[in-house]
Specification:
It is built from 2 helices and 5 strands. The chain is α+β, with helices and mostly antiparallel strands.
Length: 75
Amino acid sequence: MKILVFGQLTDIFEGSLVRLKDIPDTDTMIDRLEEKYPALKKMKYLIAIDKEIVKENTVLGEESEVSLLPPFSGG
C-alpha cells in the first residue's frame, strides 16, 4: 500500500511516500507507522482515504489511496 505524506510530516518520513504491506484498516496503519516512526505520535494529522477525510477506523484495500495531511486552516 502506498501512503502519500504532505507538509511537515515529510520531515518525519524523510520523503513524501511510505509503503506498507498487509494493512487491513486505518487503526493498524497508524500502529505500524507510529512503531516505525515514533515522532509521529506527537504530531497532529488527518487521514484521507480516496480523497475523503476519515475520522474513525476504516477498512483499507490494496488500491486505496491513503494520504496523511498536516492540520490546516482556512481563511
